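HOLO CASE FILE
Compound: magnesium ion
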Amino acid sequence: MLYEMVTGRPPFLGDQLVGIISQHINTAPVAPSWHNPDLPRALENLILQLLAKTPEGRPESAAAVEEALAAIAASSSAMATRVAPQDSKSLARLAVDVFVGRTEEITALRARLNEAASGCGRLVMVVGEPGGGKTRLTEQAATYARLLGSRVLIGRCYEGEGAPAFWPWIQIIRNYVEECEKVSLAAVLGPGAPDIAQVVQEVRERLPNLPAAPSLEPEQARFRLFDSITTFLKSAAKAQALVLILDDLHWADRPSLLLLEFLARELKDTRLLVIGTYRDVELSRQHPLAQTLGELARQGLSERIMLRGLSKDDVAKFIEMTARVEAPEGLVTAVHLETEGNPFFINEVVRLLVSDGRLGRAETTTSWKIRIPEGVREVIGRRLDHLSEPCNRVLTMASVMGRDFTFDALEPLAEFLGDRLLELLDEAIAARVITEVPQTAGSYTFSHNLIRETLYDELSAARRVRLHRRIGEVLEKLYRSRVEPHLAELAYHFFQAAPGGDLKKAIDYAVRAAQFATRVLAYEEAAAHYDRALQALELAAKPDERRRCEMLLALGEAQARASNTANARETFERAASLARKLALPDQFARAALGIGSELAMGVRFGKVDALQVQLLEEALQLLGEGQSALRARVLAHLALVFYYSEQKRAELSRESVETARRVGDKPALLAALFSRCICLEGFEEANQRLAVATEIVQLAEQVGEREMALRGHFRRLREFLELGDLRAVDAELETYGRLAAELRQPRYLWLEPFGRSTRAFLEGRFEECERLARHALEIGQRAQDETAIVFFSTQMVTLRRVQGRFDELEPAIRGFVEKYPSIMGWRASLACIYSEMGRAEEAQKGLEELSSKNFKA
Ligand SMILES: Nc1ncnc2c1ncn2[C@@H]1O[C@H](COP(=O)(O)OP(=O)(O)O)[C@@H](O)[C@H]1O
Ligand SMILES: [Mg+2]
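Model generated. Tokens follow.
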């Protein structure tokens, strides 16, 4: 009833009696302030206590309630009688947590939260300028979500390069893991637990017996990681609706954004609401987030809530509720005009006016405009001027550490120790320039990043360099016992400090951070770290050329893993010329192999790339006649490049296998055999290919290359089909399906139903053939694998021909001829179909066209 009195509505609304009763039993009520924002906070808390589901949550007795109500009444009448705070402590008396306006935005979010809780998840972006109230709005949403009984997990992104890869996601998962019991944790994480543990250390700590994640090729490994995290979040949301808040996405690392894109595609029928926030003012087209937003928009996967400035009424309400004074019209107009309704700006202005003791003398001031600073930075500057000099010095130091900082890191740097330092920090807390991070002793955060930015920007370049260096050295000691999760942070500080001297540390930490990023599958971050390592190297008076060559190779590899093929190619080219100049044959060969590294996976073979041919041939020369694993690899690669000259590819691949056998290098032998198996296509005995495929499977299992083993099985499957050994085909299909399921790779998974579809075709079960082919296509498209549609179409062409359904076939094939003009097979099929349909003239024309080009594209 109390609830109804203050909000004008009962705590639970619903159409049916049963619904309302079940809400009373199961659901926490919505905070009354969502209906009536002017409600004093203490009263709100009391009401929520009274509505608590369990007796322990409720106030002890009626007397206790009465007492609490009396206290609230006393304080709110104090509020009405307008205090005029003028002493230096006045800031502390300001009401915090005032929230005004934003009715529409809250209504929209509330609707999304309700929908998500009932199984209709989605992604909502809250967009606005710095200080525009994005974070605050998500906090409001979080409160509402908790009251709905949903679980809220928050991941914040940080400015600068100090945060580890996947940082927002790590926070989210860590948060979940911390509050979860061990038994249910394993169940919720599911089979993806080892993959998640790769990135979130806490998972491994909680579940030490997890097996290691399988080693896969870069793209596959990452798919598996993303799939594991998505599956985990979806299944966690089944038990309790989840709200994920990703704050400040404009600072997110690229891998984190890719994961967001992945998750966004899967939200539809889940109880998962993802709320992201970002600043729209700083997004250039090259910004990583801009790419993600483009992708999300193309697929229609996100909606936006744009935050504009608060209205004049909101400003008035804000001033009155915060300062507990009646706001004169002139003041409200001036604040609204100058701040353009930016809540952060308004907040700071009000605090400044209070510190200046101006708000108390409200009526006497006539021209407010001149009292209000012109920009956000200026108001921050003036607010900081109110703090003592030592306090400012400490804050400046902290601003170089980042948005969050700790007492332990600060103390060795500041000129003040122990209690004195605490006092200075308290001074900043009282002014609400910083706040303590709850539940962590000695951790602080700037109350807004704009404050940190202002402090940092005031520093001269030379001072920044010095401070970064000192911070780097302190953190190095602090993190000594467990450096890995902090490598990105150390790399960041030493890189910023590099112009001041310690290049070795800048390079070493950058390389280590890159290696760590590679291990957690954050390839784009790895590339960025290598790039910085190279930049630091350039600063040396006499850069170490050999090291530069090694770093270029590593950079190229990271870029290739991130599917940034064009940049990888350029980097490998630079590495090759440097290796040539320095006469380093091994490095040269690695650069040559790097260009077109997708060949090593057997994709796009046969594409003749002049530069690649030239470099690989030069590599063979430079390596000389000596037998080495590297030579075997170069030969294997070259064989695939020459796929269209049968003689050459046969010789090269044979030599590759022989070389690898002689040097006894198993991984190289595996690469050689794989190339051999492809090179034997078409003109050799199926039995011979079968033998090679079998050896691939055995060897791959020995060295733990599960993906290669899978490919070997697929090859075996093909050969058994060709040999007509259907029993063996069935056995291979079983094995293949099982291994693909273990690896959870849609890229391979779809091939199993596809194989079964072919099997059905062979036995004349046409309907089943079609059904399975469609199923395979579905899975393949989820993996965004283009070959799936090509395979599907081929299958359907074959099927429709046998069924005599030419009419359906012709337009489809014509479409493929247009889409893949260089694949002669489609042109040939079209001519065949015309001939079978009795359209001789068109068939004739098609055939002539083909033969005039000598059956080549
Ligand atoms: N609707 C609002 N009413 C009152 N204060 C607000 C409101 N929105 C934001 N604020 C305050 O303004 C400041 C900046 O808001 P914040 O959410 O941190 O901005 P952003 O995340 O967009 O940079 C914070 O102190 C916040 O509490
Ligand atoms: Mg924010």
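CASE NOTES: The first helix runs from residue 2 to 7. The domain at 2-81 is CATH 1.10.510.10 (Transferase(Phosphotransferase); domain 1).
CLOSED: yes
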